[in-house]
Specification:
Elements lengths: L1 H20 L23 E5 L5 E2 L7 E2 L14 E4 L7 E5 L5 E9 L10 E6 L4 E5 L5 E5 L4 E9 L11 E6 L1
Antiparallel strand pairs: 1-5, 2-3, 4-10, 5-10, 6-9, 6-11, 7-8, 7-10
Length: 175
């Protein structure tokens, strides 16, 4: 009798452990995702060109700064160039998100020909004041409410650069 009870108990344990091992562990839920690709001006991080012909949004919709226009192939050595001003910026950065976000702006120069000179600067202005200056060594971090914009003036200083140097780089904006 004890042997039958032990066999029944062992059978119950085996069956219980088999069901326990096959317990419910996954679920699947499907949701719609509306993810459109827009031009820079219509993206969540809005970028719109100002009035300068050196800043544009060509047919691909991506903002571009290009000083090689017309017969020019770049800036002169040991010169300075300012694109835009506080009231008519080179371009604008706009928070198109439906809520406030922290924006980070940085510039990565491909090759820095003169580490003592801040060769490319992006001066940031809000609706009333100069907020910060971004260059190859300094970044900006600040909150923008929905619809707020930063007006950007670009300054290029080719001091210490030669005609074979390239001041190009990547302007990175995250929110």
């Amino acid at each position: 009798m004890r042997f039958k009870l032990a066999a029944i108990a062992l059978g119950i344990v085996v069956v219980a452990s088999a069901f326990g091992a096959s317990a419910f562990t996954t679920a699947t839920v499907q949701r719609d995702a509306n993810i459109n690709v827009a031009s820079d001006s219509g993206g969540l991080i809005g970028l719109t060109a100002g009035d300068s012909e050196l800043v544009s949004s060509p047919t691909d919709g991506q903002l571009s700064i290009d000083v090689a226009q017309g017969d020019a192939s770049g800036v002169n050595p040991n010169s300075s160039l300012t694109i835009g001003n506080e009231s008519s910026p080179a371009f604008n950065i706009t928070n198109n998100f439906p809520s406030a976000h922290t924006f980070n702006v940085s510039y990565e120069m491909g090759t820095d020909p003169d580490t003592t000179t801040k060769n490319v600067k992006f001066k940031l202005f809000n609706s009333t004041d100069h907020v910060d200056t971004v260059n190859e060594d300094e970044a900006y971090k600040g909150e923008l409410s929905t619809g707020d914009k930063l007006r950007v003036v670009v300054e290029v200083d080719s001091s210490g650069a030669t005609k074979s140097d390239d001041l190009s780089g990547n302007l990175n904006i995250t929110a």
